[in-house]
Amino acid sequence: MSTRLTFTTKDILNSRLEPAHGSTSYQIDTTRGLLGRKTTSLSPLSGIPFNGVPGAIKWHKAQFDVNDEKRKWSNLQHRTGLFSSSRRWQWTGSFKVKYRNNQWTVSLQFKYGPQHV
């Protein structure tokens, strides 16, 4: 199963992720401190009941927290090609982030059908 989401602004750390076909949208918000970014959180806007934040990036720890599971970036990130600007992140499925034509997109591919980040 594959899903494509598009960021609504170039500032992907403070934006919304919108699907092409009416499924759940996500809000992305980043907090800052004296030393730069602290936490970037991902929250569904509709359709999924969550208590708290289902996904976050802890910048100073260089880790992702998704549904209370923590993983270091170095264990998840892979380049998609030698000269490619896109990155692929492996978790339950595969998340590919790409910048093309002045727009950021995320493509999600799950091994076991649709799942929510």
Write up this protein.
This protein is an all-beta fold. The protein contains no helices and 11 strands. The protein has strands at residues 2-7, 15-19, 26-33, 36-44, 55-58, 63-66, 69-72, 77-79, 87-90, 93-100, 103-110. It has an 11-stranded antiparallel beta sheet with strand order 7-6-5-4-3-2-1-11-10-9-8, with no helix packed on it. The chain is globular. The protein starts with a strand and ends in a 7-residue tail after the last strand.
Shape: globular
**Strand segment count:** 11
Percent of residues in helices comes to under 10%
- Terminal CA distance: 14 Å
* SSE class: mainly beta
User: What count of helical segments does DSSP give?
Assistant: 0
Rg (CA only): 14 Å
**Residue-averaged pLDDT:** 76
- Strand order across the largest sheet: 7-6-5-4-3-2-1-11-10-9-8
Q: Write the element-wise H/E pattern from the N-terminal end onward.
A: EEEEEEEEEEE
Topology of helices and strands:
Blueprint: E1 2-7, E2 15-19, E3 26-33, E4 36-44, E5 55-58, E6 63-66, E7 69-72, E8 77-79, E9 87-90, E10 93-100, E11 103-110
Antiparallel strand pairs: 1-2, 1-11, 2-3, 3-4, 4-5, 5-6, 6-7, 8-9, 9-10, 10-11
Supply the key terms:
mainly beta, 11-stranded antiparallel β-sheet, 117 residues, globular, disordered C terminus
At a glance:
With 117 residues, the protein is mainly β.
